[in-house]
Amino acid sequence: EVASLVILDYKLPDMDGIKVLKNIKENYKIPVIMITGVGDKETVLKSWRHNADYYIDKPFQIKELKEKIAELLKPANDAVHFKNLNLNPSKLSPDIRRALEFILLHLSSPNSEKLTLEEISSVTSVSPKYLSDLFCKECGQNLHQIMTTLKIEKTKELLDIGKDVKEIAHALGYNHPNNLYRFIKSATGKSLSELR
Q1: Is residue 9 classed as helix, strand or coil in its secondary structure?
Q2: Phi/psi at 43 (nearest 5 deg)?
């Protein structure tokens, strides 16, 4: 019987987790969550290059793992993933789809502000320059505008379901609520309460 989802550690006693990931992705259409205590950028990029669906550093909160499992096991609906950017997923190239999925999954990481075209292009088949051109051509926005739009929409979504400012800041990768306040004010000209 094939599993519905795999949670795979990067470091296994007798095997390389990336090789196992590659084997799973070549033979099955199931989501894989990579977990690791290594936590360097190269490990993250290797996981993405081999199509990991999500990546979690140890130690992690069980709540985060449960939420990601629930999300990955929901029936796929690409239109939902890209609705905040007003994009039709069927009209996007595979490279842009993969890049946007990478961005969406890294939106809550503490370093999402520092996500570069080089990192994002490494999970696609195109160069950073060409990816930048594709973002503008297919999405009508550059990387910074896409990240800003997604963070604003995620903030609104979390406000709508009653999350408090601290929870929202954490969900968007900010280590302090003041950083979220500043981002929203700078991006929208509104306060967080006005965004509701």
Answers
A1: strand
A2: -65, -45
Q: Report the C-alpha gap between 17 and 155 in whole angstroms.
A: 34
Quick: pLDDT tens for 156-166: 888 988 889 99
- Which residues have a Cβ under 8 Å from the Cβ of 158 and sit 6 or more positions away? 167, 168, 171
User: What residues contact 118, with CB distance under 8 A and at least 6 apart?
Assistant: 128
Is this structure's pTM higher than 0.70? no
Give how far the C-alpha of residue 23 lies from the chain's centroid of Cα atoms, to the nearest Å: 23
- 111: nearest Cα among 67, 55, 31: 55
Mean pLDDT, to the nearest integer, of 74-97?
69
* Amino acid found at 27: N
pLDDT tens-digit map of 9-66: 988 888 888 899 988 888 877 889 989 887 667 777 788 788 888 888 888 888 888 8
Distance of CA 57 to the CA centre of its chain: 14
> Residue 85 CB: number of other CB atoms within 10 A?
19
Of 14, 15, 60, residue with least CA distance to 33: 60
Cis peptide bond upstream of 94, omega within 30: no
Residues in the chain: 196
Q: Which residues contact 6 (CB under 8 A, 6 or more apart)?
A: 24, 30, 31, 32, 33
Q: What is the dihedral of CA 16, 73, 147, 175, to 10 degrees?
A: -70
pLDDT at position 106, please? 77
